[in-house]
Input
Amino acid sequence: MSKNNNSRSNVRRSSKKKKQKIALAILIPLFTIILFAMAYFARLLATTENAIEASYQEVERSTPVAEVDPITEPVSFLILGVDNDQENSRSLGSTRADSIIYATVNPITRKMNMVSIPRDTYVPIMQDNQIVKYDRINSAYALGQESTMIETVESWLDVPIHYYATFNFDAFLEIIDALGGIEMDVPITFSEQDSSGKSGMIHLEEGLQTLNGEEALALARTRKIDNDVERGHRQQLVIEAIMKKALNIGSIPKYTDIVETVGANMRTNMRISDMTALAKTGLNSDFAIQSHVFEWSSFTERGMDLVKIDPTSFANIQLELQNSLDPNFSDDSAYTDENNDEETTSNNSSNQETTITELETAEPETDSQ
Output
């Protein structure tokens, strides 16, 4: 009997030791991962704080925008991409905005809306609540950089801009390369100049493929595929691809390099606290991203190739953006011309007709670029 008891006791001890070994086999790697993660994110946090602090620049506003809490309220962004040949990438001087994207993030509906504004769109350029001239929208940056650009876009779309981020295209290239490239569907085979302006240096074949920074920039900027508006849409798709790759868990070890790259090539009015709040919304690949594209027509005045946005397209997209910023708007159904034409016309037609009339009759200023 005692022999059996000893045998059972030995089995229990053996079983207990096995469980302890299994537990240790799980916990030791787990704690190791946690410790490495803590060390990594501590370093990343310090890097992020330094990068954001270095790139922070507030803008002067003639009409202050209401403060919002990104965790619980919809927020909006103006994303500007600029060319810059100066050594100091933040000394952007009188350059023009090559890429203009307005975006909203709604933590309630978990939706992100984006619209690209063609850089040749003919609009009233606003400064200190006054129209200073009618010109291409990208010329607003040359006139007063982010301040004039923000006021012009806010006035034209009748929406607020809470945050802005201006990127030099060096950041665009380096972020994509740091991520190991992005997956894009190239619509046609074409050749394009590289970022230094050398013609025919980038050649892309039609089809789904992984693009490096130079190749993605060529796809985003080329005018050989379609037109300026579709070019803006491609830029949105490239941004979506960057977001998708960056939010992939496999990209986490690359975040330090990405943060340092962004910090060296960006200006923004976002503090680290703003970015942390935005992260707390759960902004990730689960967010539904809706891209909008304006319908438009082209016209020429005094040698200037200009873009006029179709009034109905403008009104529809404007309403989408305004609704996306309304915390009380909970209609998840997609906006359609059929069920909203009457309401859109009544709310926007008078203002839009006035704007279009002004744009058609105003004297455009000569622009050689």
Observations:
- The first strand starts at residue 75 and ends at 82.
